[in-house]
Amino acid sequence: MMNEKVFLEATIGNLHEAMKRGELTCADLVQRYLARIERYDQQLNAVIRVNPYALEQARALDEAFGRSGLTGPLHGIPVLLKDNVDTSFMPTTAGSSALAQVTPDEDGWIVKRLQAAGAVILAKMNLHEFAVWGETVSSVLGQTLNPYDLTRTPGGSSGGTGAGIAADFGVIGIGTDTVNSVRSPASACCLVGLRPTLGLISRSGIVPYSLTQDTAGPITRTVEDAVKTLDALVGYDPLDPLTAWSVGHLPETYTAFLKPDGLTGKNIGVLRSFFGKDAVHEPVNRVMAQALKALEAGGAQLVDLTDGLAAQLDSGRLISEVSVHLYDLKRDLGGYLESLGDKVPYHCLEALLASGLYHPGIEENLKTAASLDTDSEAYQQRLLLQKQLREDLMVLMAERGLDLLVFPHQKRLVVPVGGSQVDRNGVLGAVTGFPSIVVPAGFSEPTETAPIGVPVGMELLGRPWCESVLIEASYAFEQETRIRKPPVL
């Protein structure tokens, strides 16, 4: 049997090698993760529902393995799925009591692709209800806690996925990202979170927030596992026309860019306007100072960006003046509700508000969204600002000879439970559609509630369709630093 120490923090590669040696079956793997959920989720409150068919699916994969070996690149690998991705075999709640008993007719694109690659959907995870903010609290499950510090949030909105992957409830996590929501829990939970170029992964079968900005991406413990998951998810989906833009941009496999020397020769712009300047920002700034040194030690050339466009970029203003997430919510979530037909009695945002079947913490956002209009001049102005920002960033990177930009994902440590997530920088990738990745950068000083410190994530952002560059740099940084540590549970 597989050694227990090898099982903990295991990667896709570790597990597949153990299967080939006859030390591990898919059924055994699923049972081990279910046992961890049973043992530890009472502390974290991350799992909305375990897939009742997971063990049955694992046994079927074992039978197939006995006949012909691995059935796909993710054979038997347990997946933690954010509960806003449609599954035909269990409800999709989006964290809301309004959808608590709603089981969609079809699996979403992501589920189909994961299962085609051999993966097992193990559980559906908590999220900030309807993915509208960043603390991961919902009317279905309540507040999820950060496994590194049980007094803090796990980031969000994909915080249930992040907490679960950090705590070894599964191997692969799936989140969605409208503003920060894949990268925020990655930063808060010492994980890798990849937001791909808009259009690289289909959004069909995801409860939408803002189809102008929505995407999905992997949340994993290693860059390699994130990349293997990305390979399984990309491709053209007729149900999401935006994916047509990805045709011609897909390599045979993104794993070809897992290069230990991937930082060598990279020119990386340090976006200083995305660093905080107050005392509350000092723990993150200390970690980032060491991370920047590690980038240089790995062979990168750093360029401080302190003037021109770079000096004007302000993540708070991008949220309040450029992002269209709240403008789109009424149209896009309403369209999803309408598509559910007689499964729900409310087919628009106003009817959902009237039902009262949601966490009171999102009421203000829902009411604001209900008052906004995608036909308005203000909405069109924001779209123009997004277009201009895309062009300005491309010009900045071209003129300065930059391959990537770097900054802390969050200027301050992830907030305590009861606080509102602030000072996050993921909006730059969200409003431009440019790809970005968060990797573990280090920890704050240990405290009584955070025995090894609170994780801090570093974000790298690149040009559209240049996931290859992000992968090279982030993998090399990971290999150079080996920062990932499991939480003390």
Automatic annotation (TrEMBL):
Q: What is the lineage of its organism?
A: Bacteria, Bacillati, Bacillota, Clostridia, Peptostreptococcales
Its source organism is: Acidaminobacter hydrogenoformans DSM 2784
Q: Which Pfam families match?
A: Amidase
Q: Which UniProt keywords apply?
A: Transferase
Gene3D superfamilies attached here? Answer: Amidase signature (AS) domain (3.90.1300.10)
Mind listing the GO molecular function terms for this protein?
A: transferase activity
Origin: domain of life: Bacteria
Q: Report the residue ranges that make up the Amidase domain in this protein.
A: 28-469
The identity of this protein, by name, is: Asp-tRNAAsn/Glu-tRNAGln amidotransferase A subunit
Extract the InterPro entries matched here: Amidase_dom, AS_sf
